[in-house]
Amino acid sequence: MLALPPELVLSAYANGLFPMGKDRHDPAIHWLDPIRRGIIPLDAFQVPRSLRKVLRRQPFEIRVDHDFAAVIHACAEPTPERPRTWLNDELIHTYIALAERGFAHSVECWKDGRLVGGLYGVSLGAAFFGESMFSRERDASKVALVELVLRLRAGGFELLDTQFVTDHLRRFGAVEIGRQEYRMRLRHAIVKGAHFPTEAGSYAYRAFPPSPGRAGGGGDVDGEVPPSAPSGSRQSSTHTS
User: Using one digit for the tens of pLDDT, what is the confidence trace for 19-76?
Assistant: First the structure.
């Protein structure tokens, strides 16, 4: 039996808290409830112009829930830019258990048979709690984020919780809201029905197809995901690093 039961974690998320470890090899779990909470408004998601060009090249194979364990272990790996990580073994095991029960999902970028980037998070009602992301190749985690948002929009989600806001996430439209406003939005979202689409293919590549005769789609400007992006069907960062 897990020391950190999945039911406890889901209850915490439903009440506005989320768990973090202090260090990769420290078993202690801390529960956070920030005064200011980061979210990405799904109806105002921004895709930078440079990333639109990347999406039109379709550099990665997009998979969903293909290898959740590999994604979370990659997120837990130290890097030169991030020598310490908040994911410890207890959290890793618990999130894998949540994925096995359908409450956690991964969006993955693959290239030549290798996992090169991705992210994962927890879904509850029409709320999705972005947990962490990683890249082993340039832009892989950014592509995964666009894929995530379009799947959330298509599945009827209302809240994308990033927990904190970084300069990186601000480029995609992330904002901070107060604790009380966050809890109000959370209460509204978790009682709604939503479905996380897991079918093969890429929502992001369909939203940003190659432009005939215009390599890289050079005419793009920064802005919201176009109306032609998949949306309207039902569907279930971020300590996103």
Answer: 998 877 778 899 999 999 999 999 999 999 999 999 999 999 999 999 999 999 999 9
Please give the Cα distance from 159 to 146 (Å, whole number). Answer: 15
Q: How many helices (H) and strands (E) does the chain have?
A: 8, 11
Q: Does pTM top 0.85 for this prediction?
A: yes
Q: What is the domain partition of the chain in residue ranges? A: 37-224
C-alpha dihedral sign at 180, 184, 189, 190: positive
What CATH number labels 37-224?
3.40.630.70
The answer to whether 117 touches 60, Cβ cutoff 8 Å, is yes
Residue among 64, 92, 79 at smallest CA distance from 198:
64
Whole-number Å distance between alpha carbons of 41 and 161: 9
Query: Which two three-digit tokens encode residue 188?
Result: 């509204």
